[in-house]
Design brief:
Layout: E1 7-12, H1 18-28, E2 32-34, E3 37-39, E4 53-55, H2 58-66, E5 70-76, E6 79-84, H3 85-93, E7 97-101, H4 104-113, E8 118-123, H5 127-137, H6 142-156, E9 164-167, H7 171-186, H8 193-209
Parallel strand pairs: 1-7, 1-8, 2-7, 3-4, 8-9
Antiparallel strand pairs: 3-6, 5-6
Helix pairs in contact: 1-7
Length: 211
């Protein structure tokens, strides 16, 4: 029986490049499964329901809350975002390392439910670079960008709650760094419970033979 997978929570400022990082990570390594979040915001150009997000209205989202069908949820810039529970638990049980790309409020809620989860915070190398990336997307008004930058300052107050800060300067380097951090986390004793039990049981035979 394989060890249970690691739940990896990835957060970061809007515009830090989390989505691009996660796509490259999943395309490069085969042990990851990306959890698809549910949201009430409208799809951006090119986004598809059930691929980037599950897009629902507020009534549908609140029904899911009442049914305890979400691991976490939060409201951000006027819209709900949440993580459907069933897929995550199934993939973890199968030994997959599940990636949740969620904002800071949700990340802290996940940590309470799953203390063994690995929390990573993605940031660009500077605030000026963050502003440049937000403007470069060309999908939002100056007013929305200003709100996102103000929100980034608020989110920066919670960065210390994460296990690691990952600076997204070069994409390939950042992907490799994330994979190394996950690989190291897999070796922490609390996450190797199955292996520990197996080798302890095997060693018991030697201990009895020495009595």
């Amino acid at each position: 029986m394989a060890d249970k997978g690691i739940l990896i929570v990835v957060s970061g400022f809007s515009g830090a490049g989390k989505g691009t990082l996660m796509k490259r990570l999943l395309n490069t390594y085969d042990n990851y499964a990306l959890s698809i979040s549910m949201t009430t915001r409208s799809p951006r150009e090119g986004e598809r329901d059930g691929i980037e997000y599950f897009f629902v209205d507020r009534e549908q989202f609140e029904e899911r809350i009442e049914q305890n069908g979400l691991i976490e949820y939060a409201e951000y810039c006027g819209n709900y975002y949440g993580t459907p529970r069933a897929y995550v638990e199934e993939q973890l049980a199968a030994g997959k390392d599940v990636v949740l790309e969620i904002e800071i409020q949700g990340a802290l809620k996940v940590k309470k439910q799953f203390p063994e989860s690995l929390l990573l915070f993605v940031t660009p190398p500077s605030a000026q670079e963050l502003e440049r990336r937000l403007k470069g997307r060309g999908t939002e008004t100056d007013e929305v960008i200003a709100r996102r930058l103000a929100r980034a300052y608020e989110e920066s107050q919670g960065m210390e709650a994460y296990d690691y800060i990952v600076v997204n300067d070069d994409l390939d380097t950042c992907v490799e760094e994330i994979h190394r951090l996950v690989d190291a986390a897999r070796r922490v004793p609390v996450r190797r419970s199955t292996f520990i039990k197996e080798i302890r049981e095997e060693l018991k035979g030697f201990a009895k033979g020495a009595e």
